[in-house]
């Protein structure tokens, strides 16, 4: 019934800052960008490998609790070839990255960093 992930929607507080982060730093490709005047909102469609991100802006969106473990979406996770290379890349933009951990069940290396609004993003080594 459910075939694959289609998209992930993210609401940001600073559209230009988040657009820069997801396109220029994380490398997602812009598919479409529209300004919805009636909602004073941008919608930016971004292409990932096999999925899309939708980045929305709204005037003064309410803050969402993400830490500690609040109910709801916990984090985004992306598979990468080499966690150490990703860490080096992210820190070159002064993005703080947590220490690398090993998943006790899979044995895979992983770490976390946050987007401009504090959304936790995990990278997991292939």
From TrEMBL:
Keywords from the named record: Metal-binding
Organism: Jeotgalibacillus soli
InterPro entries linked: Fosfomycin_Res_Enzymes, Glyas_Bleomycin-R_OHBP_Dase, Glyas_Fos-R_dOase_dom, VOC_core, YwkD-like_dom
CDD domains: VOC_Bs_YwkD_like
UniProt-recorded Gene Ontology molecular function terms: metal ion binding
Location of the VOC domain: 4-126
Gene3D superfamilies: 2,3-Dihydroxybiphenyl 1,2-Dioxygenase, domain 1
Plastid found in the keyword field: no
Protein name: VOC domain-containing protein
Keyword Transmembrane helix: no
NCBIfam families per record: PRK11478.1 (NF008551)
């Amino acid at each position: 019934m459910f075939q694959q992930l289609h998209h992930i929607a993210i609401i940001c507080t600073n559209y230009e800052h988040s657009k820069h982060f997801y396109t220029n730093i994380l490398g997602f490709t812009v598919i479409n960008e529209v300004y919805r005047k009636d909602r004073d909102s941008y919608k930016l469609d971004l292409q990932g490998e096999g999925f899309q991100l939708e980045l929305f802006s709204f005037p003064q969106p309410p803050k969402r609790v993400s830490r500690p473990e609040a109910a709801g979406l916990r984090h985004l996770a992306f598979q990468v070839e080499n966690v150490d290379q990703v860490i080096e890349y992210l820190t070159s933009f002064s993005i703080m990255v947590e220490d690398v951990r090993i998943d006790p069940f899979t044995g895979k290396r992983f770490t976390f960093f946050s987007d401009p609004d504090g959304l936790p993003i995990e990278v997991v080594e292939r």
